[in-house]
Amino acid sequence: MTELRGLPVSGGSRVGYALLFEEVPDVRAPAGGVSPDDVPGELARLDAAIEEALAQLEGLQASMEGQAGLVSGIFEAHAAMLNDAAPRLRAAVQEGNAAEHAVAVVLHTIRERLEALSNPVFKQRAQDIVDIERRLLRALGSLSHETPDLTAAPLGPVVVVASTLTPSEVAAFEGREIAAMVLEYGGPTSHSVLIAKSLGIPCVVGVMGVTRAVHPGDRIWVDGSEGLVVIAPDADTLERARGLGERYDRLEAALLRESGLPAETLDGYRASLLANVEFRPDVEAGVARGAEGVGLYRTEFLVDERGRLPTEEEQVATFRWTLEHLRGGALTIRTYDFGSDKPEVPDRRFEPNAALGERSLRWCFAHPEPFRAQLRALLRVAAEGDVRIMLPMVGGLEELRQARRALAEASAELAREGVAHRPDPPLGVMVEIPAAAMIADLLAREADFLSIGTNDLIQYGLAVDRLNPAVAHWFRPSHPALLRMIRTILDAAAVHRTPVTMCGEMGGQSIYTVLLFGMGVRAFSLTPGYLPRARRLLRSLTAREARSLAAECLRQTTADDVEALLKARVQPVGRG
Ligand code: PEP
Ligand code: MG
Description:
9-stranded mixed sheet, Enzyme I, Chain A, domain 2, binds magnesium ion, binds phosphoenolpyruvate, TIM Barrel
């Protein structure tokens, strides 16, 4: 029995048999060797493989119909990439190389170029190239049989183990009995992980060495809520795993039944629970779990896999659909937050440190056209329901004012065109850069609302890369510096009577839900899966207890002490 640990990114406890995804073998056929007479035959083989791959992609694309944003475009994007590479593949065969060699050389070159860039998003694109390479090699009959083809074989409950998985490989899991997913690499917000979450597959990432430790067919227990992976569990562990799995499923079902209840403490204080969403299924999941509205719509995920931005009309349609599903609930839409850990637009120039680069609102200001189209769409849907606009990565008042001016210009333009819109919807800012926390009083005076984004407030405040599993243990919501920043923000909001929401992942972790509520947070926007637990937890305590616990936490001097105190005093729902 071997126990490994990683980052818990998608909850649930499952046991299954290991299905090991192997890396694409390196160059399979030597250069040259195809005589001029054989070139037409080899070209025909290549063309047939390309055609077969394209047909598979078309079928897969059709099966993803109805999914929004990135998920929807994956296979279409792969088809486009394959079409782009096809002339180079043919040229390589015309030079006298076998089709396998052409695939290896041409696609490896593209992939290596992408991998050489330090930007994680381009690295993710490199994974798409691997995906295409595997598909072509399979079509050529040249990929080792050990590499499982999920699109061809029906499977029992298996645990997929890989160093990385391409988004297309994960998307192909839909409708199959995949018990869980374990990856060596990949952060909690990589495309593949987002898709796993959307499909409800328990997942742990950053499990270094797992592909060497596992043998195909090994029995594995994955606890996606705890980040635990146990290879070849003994009988007792297996029993525990099954028990946990059943408890987890029973609890999920019971929690779901409580979705209609208010998140109200025993002494009558209420919190508002909202959903963080990226794709349409998240909106549905949020509504099913009793979200009163959407507190954070991450619009950068509306870009498709090829990096094409949605048009004004497409955005209006998406937000209108969301408003209709929320049935009167508020819809807070964040303007584009491209860059760094988020999706990229294709023409972005390379930046050595993307997290500190021309990302987010800075990119919007540098690209007035797409920003204008987005603002127009937002103003238009704001006339149809409770729509609020939220600005990401605000560092100073200048950004808020510049965005307000852009909004006024978009409104004037719509008015000139006679297009129905609301000229002045609420405009709020995310407080996720330490600079913004330091001037929270100034922001609270000018913004219509604040939203605390601890995912980035921790990243920038504690200088810890949110995507890097190697430093994940330094990413600590319990750090006194973070608690002081949150205190400052909440105080400023209270003085100016500016509404404030917590939309960072921290808000969904039981111990921090209680701490934040005790500090005065009354609106939580959470990943839909976290909503039922937060509701039950808040219903089980008094605001008085939470306040006194929060005050005690703020008197602690280290992250360890805060965490220990919270763990001693908060009984998580399920296991957190
Ligand atoms: C945050 O930074 O806390 C946040 C909610 O936004 P995102 O995770 O999209 O950066
Ligand atoms: Mg953020």
